[in-house]
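Escalation from tier 1.

The customer reports that the assembly of two entities below gives different structure tokens on two consecutive runs. Tier 1 could not reproduce it. I'm attaching the input and our single run for tier 2 to review.
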Amino acid sequence: MKRVLLFIVVLLVCMTTAFAGGQKEAPAKAAEAVKLALWTQEGESEGAFQFVVSLAEAFQAAHANVTIEVLNKETEALREDFQTASLAGDPPAFVWTVNDHAGPFTTANLIMPVESLADLSKYVEGALGAVTINGKVWGVPISSGNHLMLLYNKDLIATPPATTDDLIKVGKQLTKGDTYGIVWNQMEPFWLVPWLGGFGGQVFDKDGVTPTLNTKAMVDTLRFLQELKFTQKIMPAESDYGTADTLFKEGKAAMLINGDWSLGDYKNTMGARLGVARIPKISSTGKWPAPYTSGKYFMVSNKVTGAKLDAVKEFIAFATNQANQLAMVEKLTRLPALKTALDTDRIKNDPILKSSSDQMVVGTGMPPVIEMRCNWDAMKPELIAALSKTKTPEDAAAAMQKAAEACVKTIK
Amino acid sequence: MPSISLPVILASLGQVGSTVLYIALLTAVLEISLYLFFGKLLKHKHTIPIMLLTPAAVGLVLLVIYPILYEVALAFSNMSLRHFQNPTYGIIQGVNNFRTIFSQPVLKQANFFPIFLRTILWTVIQITCHVTFGLGLALLLNRKMVLRGLYRTLLIIPWAVPQVVATLAWRGEFNFEYGFINIFLRDLGLKPIQWKLHPFWNFVAVNITNIWLGIPFMMVILLGGLQSISHTYYEAADMDGAGPFSKFKNITLPLLKPIMTPAVVLGVIWTFNNFNVPYFINEYELETSDILVTALFRAAFEYNRFGFAAAFAFIIFFILLGFTLLYMKITKFDPGLEATRKKAA
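Tier 1 run:
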């Protein structure tokens, strides 16, 4: 028995020594060392994740006591994992994400208002509005926009269509063999919303929380999309984000609808061939499609306090200072959220950024309320059903409404 | 990005070191207490076995029993996004959760019973294909032939590839524009299939992937079973003039039953609960391809209905428990081989 005990004691001593070896550096600086986890939904393919990492590295170089671990998560995974990690009591200190996460995060009481974390008067009002819930601001804006626009390949099309009638006409000329007139991510309702706006629809009633999906505008929108796909045949039978992206980059799609987050990547791969314009005006209504506008934001866990919170504040100020905002414009071709950065000649003289800004003007602020989550989840399967012609536009719109209403009930 | 080097490894160990250290310390305290209590105080003759088993028992309580109890508590709560940090627990909440499962959609449109029936259909298709093709391949491999080892290795490969990796690779191949199946169909002059968008074809795609993944397991198990059947039975049958089908029906199948029964029971449970394949192949989240466990996952982590999802999980658990007991009763499952062997002999 004594041998067993002796063995246990020796084993413990060995393990203690081994693991203490790995922790050598930490205790020496324990007093002021701050370790922050930052989750971002910025992907590597657009170079945006690398930009976030470069900011973290630059900040660490100036603040020896702060370590920032940047982790990439797909947008929905970030939302789910942040909720789960918060429930387990170990969330990341802050996240770099889209505005509509503010809805679920505030409903579950996971993040803190940011009025005390940054001087919000320095940021564009439009960007702040997209994260304002119940009179409080829940995110510090990093970029403004995050909106969809029409990108086109100048080798295939010299002038982009101004109306949907032109789009159909040009699209039919361009669609031949394995080349399509226009592509976009058909599977996500984020790409449905601009068209809905063009047909005069909105996803919420005036109160901002009651879903209005079973409307004439929605039926017209779905019918229009079916026409583009099945009657005029100017778009692929099936295309998600990756497929649309690849088709456009390979020159197999003349036009693409994508967001401002992708501009940097397309500018790098296509160079001067890339053109940017507004999504064509709906001929039957005379209205411009209205993509959702918002931006990217820092949202801070309400579990962060003390030295960690101070470090988070400093990093937010650093990441959104004039120099880094202009660096973001340079590297990612996104519109900055800082007023002074948005007002520079760099933005005004860049044709791509100017077009992006021009599209943003006709956009609609994306609702950050939790009910929007219900609308997204309700629209997605029905959009897919309409685009696979397994449901009529009328049935799909009715089913969307029913699902959204049922969802709103469950979250109350 | 830092590459894997000694400082990185040491830093990683340092990060988990404190946790491991606490566990080791607690284990030591536990062991010493057990030794003093059972060994010194009671002078119990089974002190050593108790000391060896207790850490595992504590681990099981923490990692299995506690989560199950927490699950029960959650099923009787109204935990959702709105009541994330302050849920209320009670019989009323529990009854509400269980009633909602059967009275309202568990996803956006789909109700419980259509998903349940689809899950049964999915399980029947899968197990039928796994056993049929698995047995067929096992019979082919259970003969003397050139390069048998090579064939066996090749056939086992789908099982050796991590399931998520294989599933994501298949998902790529179901791409409308760039997937090899559609490229192949186009080259043959046929119309490409909307594997991800069309409800029927999406369900077919999910099935194809899982059949491919599941056959090797059944094949390996049944091959082991076939190799354990003594040749003397077949020799005796030859002397009696039995044909191949008669030998298969009267010797192979009965003697395979003790191996096949647990394999089928396990196969049913794994298939019924298979998450990776139906979730990842169904990239566009068609509710028409969801089975119970993927619906459960969506209810919990996409729609944040945690209390509801916990109750839902219990329903799935009881369905599987009922199935297992029923199947074992119908097949008169005998875990010992001897009785069956004697009967066959």
